[in-house]
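Researcher: Sequence of ABC transporter ATP-binding protein follows. Predict its structure.
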Amino acid sequence: MRLEVDIASKTFRSAAGEQHDVINGVAFALDAGEVGVLVGPSGCGKSTMLRILGGLDHDFQGRVSRPVDARIGFVFQEPRLLPWRSVEENVRLAAPRADDKKLSSLFEILELEAHRNHFPGELSLGLARRVALARAFAVEPELLILDEPLASLDIALANRLRDQIAMLMDGRSVITLLVTHDVDDAVRLGDRLILLSPRPARLLADLPIRTPRSARGEAETAAIKSEIMRWINGHPPRQSAS
Ligand SMILES: Nc1ncnc2c1ncn2[C@@H]1O[C@H](COP(=O)(O)OP(=O)(O)OP(=O)(O)O)[C@@H](O)[C@H]1O
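Model: Prediction complete. Tokens:
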């Protein structure tokens, strides 16, 4: 089970007919159980890439090969819940075959137990995000796509949710793609960092982190972060820190 990506180019055409190049050469591969983190500046084409990888956009030059008929869990930047359905119904509708025990465990890890019967309009952004995550994990995805799952949350909440996402990813044999522009989140969650240039996105570096997430100490995390910053600032290191 493997995701292979080779996007030569992706362009959008404006209403006035102008062509905007958004992706210009990004190739990488991910194996099952691996978390790939796309790191790049705002507007460089990360969400566009996720839509291509998730099979929602076929209008690009290149090739994406993913497991045939893969179940895909997609968490968009905005939670996209059905407003007239409860939290539990939102999750069950996406994953009708999920058993009660699995759902309870997901709700417990994501601290949603007390909110099963609430409606999306009653939830804070952080809670709605958790519901979107529960829904994505409940389908037992083979390919999991998370677009900025920690954006716009306060630091304490983002840290907690980051740990919960890590807990959910550990031990699952899922190909995961996560987008962030937070270098710290990238290093704490990823197994492979895919660094992108400003728009049009091209691959700056594909950095595997060999130490398992749970064993990464502060010193190693800091070293990898500084390596990333050197790439982003145009001074790539001669030797990989990972
Ligand atoms: N449907 C569309 N039509 C035209 N242009 C688009 C469309 N979708 C995205 N774009 C443009 O493509 C570029 C990349 O957008 P995208 O949302 O993929 O970037 P991003 O890296 O995810 O940004 P952010 O980090 O701010 O979420 C932007 O300039 C955006 O305006």
